[in-house]
Specification:
The protein is α+β, with helices and mostly antiparallel strands and 118 residues long. The chain is built from four helices and four strands, in the order αβββααβα. The protein has one domain: Nucleotidyltransferase, domain 5, CATH 3.30.420.100. Strand 2 and strand 3 form a beta hairpin. The longest helix has 19 residues. It is globular and about 35 Å long.
């Protein structure tokens, strides 16, 4: 039997394969119990163009808790701003096998509102 993590990674592999064909930068999301992380990775998957997380010092000062929907929305906004500064407008959303719900959904919607297209 697969562990929960193995199941998530198996789900994420399919997404990565599909995004690789699209030849577009991808916005990857990772969530742990305490934090949420977002990265914009280049088309070839070789370079991180922008990154934001609740583990960053200035974000931690704003938030008490990095593991909630409000924190995820803030990171969505930050990653969109950083991506646009790096010249990335269009991305593919890679939820890394996590359900599109709660914190992952909050991050995605905040990034869309801040002007990232996906």
């Amino acid at each position: 039997m697969m562990t929960k993590k193995e199941q998530r990674l198996r789900r994420s592999r399919q997404t990565r394969a599909r995004i690789a064909i699209q030849r577009v930068a991808r916005l990857t999301v990772f969530r742990s119990n305490l934090h949420i992380y977002a990265q914009v990775v280049s088309e070839d998957g070789g370079k991180v163009l922008a990154a934001a997380s609740t583990a960053e010092k200035e974000v931690r000062e704003q938030l008490g808790n990095g593991g909630n929907v409000a924190a995820a929305a803030l990171i969505g906004k930050r990653i969109a701003e950083k991506a646009k500064a790096a010249g990335v407008e269009k991305v593919a959303f890679d939820r890394s096998g996590f359900a599109y719900h709660g914190r992952v959904k909050a991050l995605a919607e905040a990034a869309r509102e801040a002007g990232l297209q996906f």
